[in-house]
Amino acid sequence: MRSKNAIRQTKGDRIFVILNSLILCLIFLIVAYPVYFVILASVSDAQYVNSGTLLLWPKGFHLSGYRYVLKEERIWVGYANTILYASAGTLLGLFASLLAGYSLATPTLPGRKGIMAIMVFTMYFSGGLIPSYLIVKQLGLLDTRTIMIILGSVSVYNIILIRTFFLNTIPKELQEAASIDGCGYGRFFIQIALPLSKAIIAVIALYLVVGYWNSYFTALIYLQDNSKKPLQLFLREILLVSTESMKQQTENAEAMAEYQRLLEVIKYAVIVVSTLPVMCIYPFLQKYFVQGVMIGSLKG
Amino acid sequence: MKAITVSARKKGRLFREIRRHWILYVFLLPALLYLALFAYAPMYGIQIAFKDYSIAGGVWGSPWVGLKWFRFFFGSKLFSTVLVNTVVLSLYGLIAGFPMPIILALSLNYVKNIRFKRTLQTVTYLPHFISTVVLVGMLSVFLSPRSGFVNTIIEAITGHTIYFFGAPEYFRHLYVWSGVWQGAGWGSIIYMAALASVSPELHESAVIDGAGILKRIWHIDIPSIMPTMVIMLILNCGSIMSIGFEKVYLLQNSLNMETSEVISTYTYKMGLLQQKFSYSTAIGLFNNLINFVLLTLVNKVANKLSGYSLW
Fold first, then answer.
1. Which backbone phi and psi does A273 adopt, to 5 degrees?
2. CB distance B28–A99 less than 8 Å?
3. B7 beta partners
4. Which of B23, B193, B272 sits opposite A185 (nearest CB)?
5. What phi-psi label fits residue A126: left (phi over 0), alpha (psi between -120 and 50 degrees) or beta?
6. Rounded to an integer, what distance in angstroms lies between the CA atom of residue B264 and that of residue B243?
7. Which terminus has fewer CB within 10 Å in chain B: N or C?
């Protein structure tokens, strides 16, 4: 591993390398410690978590936080809803954006520039909160699962990414040759373009899934019904909004006191349960995300 | 006569071309339908910014009131607070958040041990995938004056605890530095890519000429990522007035309102919580117009400087 220039390393360089490693280790700690601490606190005894004396390793191993989370219905309702919205929305978004991106990547399409302009304008300017709310209301989509799936599925940014991808990866000649052989645009898209675009499909799908997974704004505005709320909205209630909603659920004082005692541990356990899936999948998909950033930085 | 036949032939050709591509127009339909419903239809509703909206009247039937709501907003006590908060928060975020990914990328670029580098990259990208709700939730438990570990440390050093969420002077720091924590690693990807494309020969010959690492960073690395830096900076400037709603709203409470009320949260409260539809729409429109001008400017500048355009 040692390269030739190791011999040439001056004193200044050596100091740089050492300092650099130290700073990077510090950065590693700053990023990793909070994540580590969450896991640590989630399995510790409430007494130590409440007093804030926990720092490096778990004290009094306890799973009471998790036991509570398993019983907490809101988490599972939220999970089921989020999975539904994310999967349906991602499919819908992929469908619409791939088709649109492919069309706009066809240089001979009449009116291509105009359609592009119509799309891009929406990135610059929007109707705003209330006008959007009024439209959704008029469409009769307030407080429905449909709106949770549809909103956020199509993004012009994604369409541009897909268009850039098709422009760069599918040679014009290929389309021309296919067209001479009597292969229309529709067949070309399904039989040739789609199989070539696994990378961009992965990237867009990941973007969409993460977007749906994280957002709570749409739900905050358009949903009332608790049974339809996504995970993030319940997380907000549990982690940030006062414990009012909990108080109504727990009838007797003893259970209430116990709940109060466990509250901090429960919060940590909730964070772990809601974030772990993403954290575990992400390292395996990292290369696709990185790829997405790269495609995004290419010129259209 | 000739001109007519030529244009007629042109028309005929255009028509043939359109027919030849008909399936592509069908392909565009779903996306265009979405934009028509959720982007263009709301634009029609913007007119209520100039009306006195009532449910009975609806968008079309409510009476016109001209610029009443804009005057009301500009004249209100909150106008300057909200405007200043928005701009200060974005500028602070930009100044603190912009250099971090660059420094991280430059520094990672000189790590020889591949495994250490990979681990660092994976770990620093990780926070990007923590949702905003969970991020703010983590902040609130870590910083809790009773049980948060941060306050345990602060108390050990200074003897008293700080209630970070409950004081307006901490809001901006919380917002900005949690953003840096979450975004710096992810933001470095684009610079890592730019650095990877620097030819190794440049570095080799610089080493032969006796240039140390700092010199090479200054004379080779920074110039080669300069175009990316300029673009990122310009693009960031374009979104100065469009601070997102989600994180601010989560970090906000009645105690830190003084610094945490920004345009997007104010619009939400006026509109959906207080049902002042026209007023809220007017504020939104005001913000949108500024964003529109900023983005257009920024895109022009970026295009002039580097031939790069967002689209």
1. -60, -35
2. yes
3. none
4. B23
5. beta
6. 7
7. N
Residues of B with Cβ-Cβ distance to A79 under 8 angstroms? none
The pLDDT score that the predictor gives to residue B307 is 64
**pLDDT value for A62:** 80
Q: Look at the alpha carbons of B125, B126, B127, B130 in this order and tell me if their dihedral is positive or negative.
A: positive
pLDDT at B75 over 80: yes
CATH number for the segment(s) B70-306:
1.10.3720.10
Which regions of chain B carry the CATH code 1.10.3720.10? 70-306
- Write out the two tokens for A34: 């909070």
Query: Can you give the pLDDT at residue A244?
Result: 47
Average pLDDT over residues B46-63: 87
Is A300's pLDDT higher than 50? no
pLDDT at position A2: 45
How many C-beta neighbours within 10 Å does residue A141 have?
17
pLDDT of residue A292: 74
At A222-258, the pLDDT tens digits run: 999 999 999 999 999 888 875 544 545 555 677 777 7
Scanning every residue of chain A, which has its alpha carbon at the shortest distance from the alpha carbon of B47?
A: A131
Instruction: Name which of B204, B267, B310 is nearest A129 (Cβ-Cβ).
Output: B267
At A134, list the tokens: 């009024």
Which distant-in-sequence residues (6+ apart) come within 8 Å of B86 by Cβ? B241, B243, B262, B263, B264
Q: How many CB atoms lie within 10 A of CB A208?
A: 24
- Average pLDDT value over all residues in chain A: 85
Would you say B87 and B95 are in contact if contact means Cβ atoms under 8 Å apart?
A: no
Query: Using CB atoms within 10 A of its CB, is residue A71 exposed (0-12), middle (13-18) or buried (19+)?
Result: exposed
Asked whether A114 and A57 are in contact (CB, 8 A), the reply is no
- Determine whether the interchain pair B27/A126 forms a contact, defined as Cβ–Cβ distance below 8 Å: no
Q: What is the pLDDT, as a whole number, of residue A251?
A: 59
A and B: number of Cβ contacts within 8 A = 277
Write down the pLDDT at residue A243: 52
**Which member of B28, B107, B295 has the closest CB to residue A100?**
B28
Contact list in B for residue A123 (CB cut-off 8 A) is 295, 310-311
**Global pTM value:** 0.86
pLDDT averaged over chain B? 88
